[in-house]
UniProtKB/TrEMBL annotation:
Function according to Swiss-Prot or TrEMBL: Part of the ABC transporter FtsEX involved in cellular division.
UniProt protein name: Cell division protein FtsX
GO biological process: cell division
UniProt lineage: Bacteria, Bacillati, Actinomycetota, Actinomycetes, Kitasatosporales
Cross-referenced NCBIfam families: FtsX_actino (NF038346)
Annotated ranges, domain ABC3 transporter permease C-terminal: 184-302
Protein topology in the membrane: Multi-pass membrane protein
Family recorded in the similarity comment: Belongs to the ABC-4 integral membrane protein family. FtsX subfamily.
Subcellular location: Cell membrane
Coiled-coil regions, chain positions: none
Stretches that traverse the bilayer: 21-41, 180-201, 233-256, 276-300
Keywords on record: Cell cycle, Cell division, Cell membrane, Membrane, Transmembrane, Transmembrane helix
Organism of provenance: Streptomyces clavifer
Major localization listed first in the record, in broad terms: membrane
Length: 306
């Protein structure tokens, strides 16, 4: 009988404050979707770092005959065979460098350039003699790039030392910035949702103050009187959590598998799988259920006199 009464009171409360309940559901759904998106973005960045940092190289570009006039470091002319031999020997002696050290010839560099930028209008203006020979160095620890840069950046025959990790750092910095923005929006929406929940509970309690007063007079406990209000907030939060889960699943499908199909267009990126999304859904649902219930409990302690 008591359970039936509590459920009937929940239904009454939801019908009386339908507009505000809808606002709570939407705000909770958006805030939790942003929360889940932020978690997935952080996992995506971590996955990409693990995937790409293991593959990036340090490139030591050597001077060619065309660099003598334009590049001060190559004023002495193109790199000599002896200089190339010494550079390779020194690289192989370094503990931070994985063996073997790869050497890319001018023809190989031109071939790789055509494979990557062959469709570009500028590709036809590039000739093999404009390309540079280079050593491709894989580090045991990508963080030790400066060890190689310091050792070879000023040597004769070396035009420049480039760390491919720096390019990725810019990308990861952008993604981390987007993640921070998502977290900020999530916190903002969460605050709005909590304010709506508290306000909804206050309005619901005020509209039923006569019923709660009678229940108090006949000996009902404070928890029994508060339970319908708490359950109303929890139910609205649960609906919002379910909508957030749907948004996350739809976003994962639309962005990566269908619609934009980033998995096919950007096949060099190791996108997170469905399991990463599915493992976040229970947390989203739990927060969606507990957050409004706790907020309602504190609101009732202050505004509902029982």
């Amino acid at each position: 009988m008591r359970a039936q009464f509590v459920l009937s009171e929940i239904g009454v409360g939801l019908r009386r404050n339908l507009t505000m309940t809808f606002a709570v559901v939407v705000s909770v759904a958006l805030s939790l979707a942003l929360f889940g998106g932020a978690l997935l973005m952080r996992e995506q960045v971590s996955s990409m770092k693990t995937y790409w940092y293991d593959k990036v190289n340090v490139s030591i570009f050597l001077c060619n005959k065309n660099d003598a006039k334009d590049v001060p470091k190559c004023a002495k002319g193109a790199v000599t065979a002896q200089q190339k031999k010494e550079i390779k020997a020194d690289l192989e002696k370094m503990d931070a460098v994985e063996k073997p050290v790869l050497f890319e010839t001018v023809d190989e560099a031109y071939k790789h350039y055509q494979e990557q930028f062959g469709d570009s209008p500028m590709a036809g203006n590039i000739t093999p003699d404009q390309m540079q020979e280079s050593f491709r160095v894989k580090l045991k620890d990508p963080q030790k790039y400066k060890v190689v840069a310091t050792a070879f950046a000023g040597r004769d025959g070396v035009q420049s030392v480039q760390d491919q990790r720096s390019i990725l750092d810019n990308l990861f910095g952008l993604m981390n910035g987007m993640n921070v923005a998502a977290v900020f929006l999530m916190v903002l929406m969460l605050v709005i949702a909590l304010m709506l929940i508290v306000n909804t509970v206050r309005v619901s309690a005020f509209s039923r103050r006569r019923e709660t007063g009678i229940m108090r007079l006949v000996g009902a406990s404070g928890f029994y009187i508060q339970m319908p209000f708490i359950m109303e907030a929890a139910f609205a939060g649960l609906i919002g959590g379910l909508l957030a889960c749907v948004i996350l699943l739809a976003a994962r499908y639309f962005l990566i598998d269908g619609g934009l199909a980033l998995q096919e267009k950007l096949n060099l990126i190791d996108f997170i799988g469905w399991e990463a999304v599915l493992t976040k859904l229970p947390l989203v649902l739990a927060i969606g259920l507990l957050m409004p219930a706790v907020a309602a409990l504190f609101a009732l302690r202050k505004y509902l006199k029982v």
